[in-house]
Design a protein that fits this description.
Length: 76
């Protein structure tokens, strides 16, 4: 009887862990754009990013978006 209970308890614990771990926000960059669409050196350009949550839970915690050009973060 004890041999059957231990694997079943382990399976239940593993199942609970997998269920909890899968319910998370998952943020992706869904789109990027610039205005003007073809920037010219020395002119002001507006950068836009659309962030989408494809996860199964709301993104209730703050998150940050940074822009990089050639690996260097730019101020926005």
């Amino acid at each position: 009887m004890t041999r059957q209970i231990v694997p079943m308890v382990a399976l239940l614990v593993l199942g609970a862990f997998v269920s909890c771990a899968s319910a998370q926000p998952d943020l992706i960059v869904a789109g990027i754009a610039s205005i003007p669409s073809t920037p010219i050196a020395g002119t002001v350009t507006t950068l836009l990013a659309t962030i989408e949550n494809v996860g199964s839970q709301d993104a209730s915690q703050p998150f940050y978006v940074t822009f990089e050009i050639d690996g260097r973060q730019i101020d926005v």
